[in-house]
Design goal:
By secondary structure, the protein is α/β, with parallel strands linked by helices. The chain has one domain: 3-Layer(aba) Sandwich (Alpha/beta knot). It has five helices and seven strands. The radius of gyration is 14 Å and the shape is globular. The model has no long low-confidence stretch (mean pLDDT 91).
Length: 153
C-alpha cells in the first residue's frame, strides 16, 4: 500500500477526488491539519461520491504529529521546485507522497530540509502547477506501475 499525504489542503473537491483515487488504488490518505474545509463538506462528498466510507484515512494535528506516528517510512515531497523527476525514483510499497496546499505548495523550509527526496512532475512554463488531484494520480500511479499494480485488476 502506498500513502498519499495532503499537507494543509484547501479545496474540498480536490480532497474528495484524491480520496476516490486512494480508494481505487488501495492507497491510504493522510491529512495534516489545518484544513480549510470540514470532512462533512458537500463538495468533498460529491467529489468522493459514494466511496468515502471505503477510504483508509488518518488525520494529524500538525506535521510533528505526522512524523511521530509515521517515522519509519520513506516520504517523497512533491513540488514544482524539485530537481528530480518523479519517474527517476525507484519506489517501494509503503512509500509516502506528500503534497502541499493548492495555493502555495509545501513550505520552502520543508523542501530544503528534505532536498534529496523532493520530486517533480515536468510542466510547461505557461503554468505554475497542475491540479493537485491530477498530480496525486500521476505520481501514485507511477509508483503502482513500478511495483506491478499489486492488488489491482
Amino acid at each position: 500500500m502506498f500513502n498519499v499525504v495532503l499537507y494543509q489542503p484547501e479545496i474540498p473537491s480536490n480532497a474528495g477526488n484524491i480520496g476516490r483515487i486512494c480508494v481505487g488504488s488501495n492507497a491510504k490518505l493522510h491529512i495534516i491539519k489545518p484544513m480549510r474545509f470540514l470532512l462533512t463538506d458537500k463538495h468533498l462528498a460529491r467529489a468522493g461520491l459514494d466511496y468515502w466510507d471505503k477510504l483508509d484515512i488518518t488525520i494529524y494535528d500538525d506535521l510533528s504529529d505526522f512524523y511521530e506516528k509515521c517515522p519509519q517510512n520513506r516520504v517523497y515531497f512533491c513540488s514544482t521546485k524539485g530537481n528530480e523527476l518523479y519517474t527517476q525514483v525507484k519506489y517501494e510499497v509503503g512509500d509516502f507522497f506528500m503534497f502541499g496546499p493548492e495555493t502555495k505548495g509545501l513550505p520552502n523550509e520543508l523542501l530544503k530540509d528534505n532536498n534529496e527526496r523532493v520530486i517533480k512532475i515536468p510542466i510547461s512554463n505557461d503554468i505554475r502547477s497542475i491540479n493537485l488531484a491530477n498530480s496525486v494520480a500521476i505520481v501514485l500511479y507511477e509508483a503502482l506501475r513500478q511495483t506491478g499494480f499489486e492488488g489491482l485488476s
